[in-house]
């Protein structure tokens, strides 16, 4: 099994780096076009092209595996999670708004789960030349450097990241949470890539992150944060739509010492 995991991880890293090259090329040559999903969610032709590249490469190499991918199979039948078939969870560009606006905070996110376990995660930031990765039980790394969460213990010293949904009608309770965090913590960041927010908690650049996100935003980054020593949990009532390993409905990730205090801030029902 471990041999399989190592092979899958090496494959995922190669995929992420090649996908990152496609992203850099598209931006340098300005060859992408913008569109909107569900009328309000930005998607570019590069999101679709990178998704297609990653998914077809996985299908070619591992035809028996399944894929849950933001752009081409967001409603994949999750029976694969239950029967133990490996499931790849893909966000071809996490940080599409950053990508389209010429920012550098952009990532390719590739996670793999088997049953209820997150097995591996690769989050590659092509403009920053940083590849974050983890394998279950083996620690988390940025390029070749081992990652460890910060030692933050108090809310007053905590730098906390979050994000906002494309759907503006969902905003009022989120703004309420942001206000509570702003009043009690050092500051807030909205960097525009959930996958990188999770990796930055792993790297100790952020002390915590909270947001309600989809499986493709968090499958890889959650394992990377966990393997670097972060505490992970949920602050919203659950709908039960997604299996636990890829569920980001009200995701709170922080240093172990901050977790309970932050949960009390962002769980408005407490
Ligand atoms: C978005 C980013 C953003 C987060 C949003 C996500 P996308 O993903 O991760 O930081 O706040 O919730 O939807 O659309 O760039 O893949
Ligand atoms: Ca995303
Ligand atoms: Ca995306």
TrEMBL record:
Q: Where does Mg(2+) 2 bind?
A: 93
Which is a Pfam family this sequence falls into? Inositol_P
Q: Which UniProt keywords apply?
A: Hydrolase, Magnesium, Metal-binding, Transcription, Transcription antitermination, Transcription regulation
UniProt keyword annotation of Hydrolase present: yes
Q: Which InterPro entries match?
A: IMPase, Inositol_monoP_metal-BS, Inositol_monophosphatase-like, Inositol_monophosphatase_CS
Residues reported in the UniProt entry to bind Mg(2+) 1 = 70, 91, 94, 217
Recall the GO molecular function terms of this protein's record: inositol monophosphate 1-phosphatase activity; metal ion binding
* Catalytic function, reaction form: a myo-inositol phosphate + H2O = myo-inositol + phosphate
Q: Which residues form the signal peptide?
A: none
EC number(s) on record? 3.1.3.25
- Matches recorded under PANTHER family: INOSITOL MONOPHOSPHATASE, INOSITOL-1-MONOPHOSPHATASE-RELATED
Q: What is this protein called?
A: Inositol-1-monophosphatase
